[in-house]
Amino acid sequence: CGQDPGLREATELRLLQLRPDLEEMYRKLGTAVRSPVLVLPYPRMFDTGAGGCGRLTGGELAFGLEITDALNGTIEQSVLGAGLPNVRYVDTLEDSFAGRGACSADPLIKTARIGPLLGAAASAAASQEILHPTAEGYRVLTADLLQWLEEHPA
pLDDT of 17-67, one tens digit each? Predict the structure, then answer.
């Protein structure tokens, strides 16, 4: 899929279209509440330079990282565009899984390797969990969020 220029172009266009909607939503939310609104990014699920794993090729992993980074950039720019001091982007979480992505030996993400894929084929619930954080992955995200809050008091 990463080699499909039409898919790349459609993805870029959709992200451009998404930004004004996100800005408006963050602006409305930020003016509706006085408390901080923390906007979380998508963590990078794959490590840079990872070879293929499971049914995903190295090129598909790189494309997945590009999409994740572009989406996070759109989200961050939308937060900035909302222009409200109580709406904040938590950039730290982007790299919460660094070194322990879906293709690593000790992943914090439910992997795309053949074993989990076969298990997912037998269960609708399991299939929805592929490429989502494991329980430990959620603990890491929570710890990183708490650390960010310590470093960026509201």
Answer: 999 999 999 999 999 998 999 999 999 988 877 677 777 788 888 888 999
| SS percent in the chain: helix, strand, coil, step 5 | 60, 5, 35
User: What pLDDT is recorded for position 8?
Assistant: 82
Residues near 19 by Cβ (< 8 Å), separated by ≥ 6? Answer: 74, 77, 78, 81
SS3 95: helix
Residue 68, token pair as written in the block: 């994740």
135's CB contacts (< 8 A; 6+ apart) are none
Strand partners, 87: 37
CA angle, residues 77, 22, 39, in degrees to nearest 5? 70
Distance of CA 81 to CAs 21, 58, 67, 75, 94, Å?
11, 34, 21, 10, 20
Over the chain, what is the mean pLDDT?
A: 86
Contact of 50 with 61, CB cutoff 8 Å: yes
